[in-house]
Amino acid sequence: MEKVQHLTRNAMRRASQAMEVPPQARRNLQELFVNFCLILICLLLMYIIVLLV
């Protein structure tokens, strides 16, 4: 059991190292995510306004 946990931990560490994204890409992803959220909020607000009118 201990060996399995050790192997899993090593695999997880290797995966996280392989998944390392450069800071520039991470910044781009964050900006994209923020823009997406802003658009969603705007759409939601417009929907509410249309419902209220």
From TrEMBL:
It comes from Gadus morhua (Atlantic cod). The keyword Endoplasmic reticulum applies. The keyword Membrane applies. GO terms for molecular function: ATPase inhibitor activity. This is Phospholamban. One of its GO terms (cellular component) is sarcoplasmic reticulum membrane. The gene is PLN. It comes from the Eukaryota. It is found in: Endoplasmic reticulum membrane; Mitochondrion membrane; Sarcoplasmic reticulum membrane. Belongs to the phospholamban family.
